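User: Reviewer 2 asked us to show a designed sequence for the structure in our supplementary figure. I'm pasting the structure tokens here. Could you produce the per-position amino acids so we can include them in the response letter?
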């Protein structure tokens, strides 16, 4: 791929990601789904160019999200996890035994979620909603649900990569020569 095509693809992926992040202000109930989709776009960068370019796009989108996106919680979750995970996913899957791979993936996810939670509550001052009838166990139930959701997300990313490689890559290659 030519340098100009790489730059164009990086710009397109960055712009789409930022637009998705901005949509969290318009569709507030998608505060987690839209950063997830914005991060998934980085798969194109990893497959078609390389991880270095993908990290540059991640950095650009992260900076713009932090400064421009009104939903700071969505920006924090993009920066803390959804932005870089699609980039490192293939490395984890290639270089680690299957059991260790899943342990590392869940450890990264849980560390990111806990760090994002504390940053959101302590630094940004966004209050965490009261767990109501769940009481003191509510946060653990929420974390368990988040882990199940992460498992589905990881499998979805794998299926998305497979779909792209076998169904859409030929068409993509015609556009970006």
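Assistant: Here is a per-position design you can include in the supplement:
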């Amino acid at each position: 791929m030519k340098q100009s095509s790489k730059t164009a693809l990086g710009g397109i992926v960055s712009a789409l990601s930022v637009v998705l992040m901005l949509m969290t202000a318009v569709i507030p109930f998608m505060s987690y789904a839209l950063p997830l989709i914005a991060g998934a776009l980085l798969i194109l960068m990893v497959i078609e160019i390389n991880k270095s370019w993908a990290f540059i796009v991640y950095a650009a989108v992260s900076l713009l999200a932090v400064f421009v996106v009104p939903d700071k919680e969505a920006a924090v979750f993009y920066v803390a996890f959804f932005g870089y995970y699609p980039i490192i996913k293939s490395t984890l899957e290639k270089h680690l035994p299957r059991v260790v791979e899943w342990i590392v993936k869940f450890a990264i996810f849980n560390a990111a979620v806990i760090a994002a939670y504390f940053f959101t509550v302590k630094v940004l001052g966004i209050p965490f909603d009261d767990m109501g009838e769940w009481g003191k166990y509510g946060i653990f139930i929420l974390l368990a649900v988040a882990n199940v959701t992460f498992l589905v997300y990881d499998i979805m990313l794998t299926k998305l990569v497979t779909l792209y490689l076998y169904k859409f890559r030929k068409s993509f290659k015609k556009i970006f020569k």
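For the response letter, you might also mention the following. The radius of gyration is 17 Å. The chain is about 80% helix and 0% strand.
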